[in-house]
């Protein structure tokens, strides 16, 4: 039996530690890659669990809202890693909306939970997020803007799923004469 309260507590710790180190822009985008099967101790896609999905999304959304950051939830490979976002996020960022409604085994527990929790959810194929979290090695790097920077927290696992975190920064360009901040 999975301990849902422990998932909530661990996720809260992880996100708080992340935002102790990282400041994403107002209305920034945070991508969540998530496998409820991995949290349950199984191979990705083999034991999807809607309760776990709902605990993760319902814990994460208010924490991101406190930091004025929007959530994008990565779908599974059956949806080509499409992302669920609020329609206003897709419109503001100019993302092309695609037609699909996530299901437990085509999108995943996280997308289904977010679909229920969002005000006006839509799917998009591509995003450029400023940061994110991966629960279960789902590979979110393709959705985080270049240059990606790993963020370390004390939380290495949620349930049985490995966790990793990313933020990003603008590219540093130029050569030996370049400077990267404006002189005072």
TrEMBL record:
<dbReference type="InterPro" id="IPR006340">
    <property type="entry name" value="DUF436"/>
</dbReference>
<comment type="similarity">
    <text>Belongs to the UPF0340 family.</text>
</comment>
<dbReference type="InterPro" id="IPR028345">
    <property type="entry name" value="Antibiotic_NAT-like"/>
</dbReference>
<dbReference type="Pfam" id="PF04260">
    <property type="entry name" value="DUF436"/>
</dbReference>
<protein>
    <recommendedName>
        <fullName>UPF0340 protein FD04_GL001457</fullName>
    </recommendedName>
</protein>
């Amino acid at each position: 039996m999975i301990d849902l309260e422990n998932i909530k507590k661990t996720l809260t710790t992880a996100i708080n530690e992340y935002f102790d180190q990282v400041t994403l822009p107002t209305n920034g985008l945070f991508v969540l890659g998530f496998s409820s099967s991995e949290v349950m101790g199984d191979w990705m896609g083999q034991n999807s669990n809607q309760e776990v999905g709902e605990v993760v999304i319902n814990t994460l959304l208010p924490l991101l809202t406190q930091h004025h950051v929007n959530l994008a939830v990565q779908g599974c490979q059956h949806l080509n890693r499409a992302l669920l976002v609020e329609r206003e996020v897709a419109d503001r960022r100019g993302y092309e909306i695609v037609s699909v409604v996530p299901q437990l085994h085509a999108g995943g527990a996280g997308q289904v939970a977010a679909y229920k929790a969002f005000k006006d959810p839509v799917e998009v194929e591509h995003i450029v997020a400023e940061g994110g979290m991966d629960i279960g090695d789902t590979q979110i790097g393709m959705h985080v803007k270049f240059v990606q920077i790993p963020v370390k927290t004390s939380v290495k696992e949620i349930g049985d799923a490995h966790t990793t975190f990313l933020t990003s920064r603008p590219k540093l360009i130029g050569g030996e004469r370049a400077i990267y901040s404006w002189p005072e």
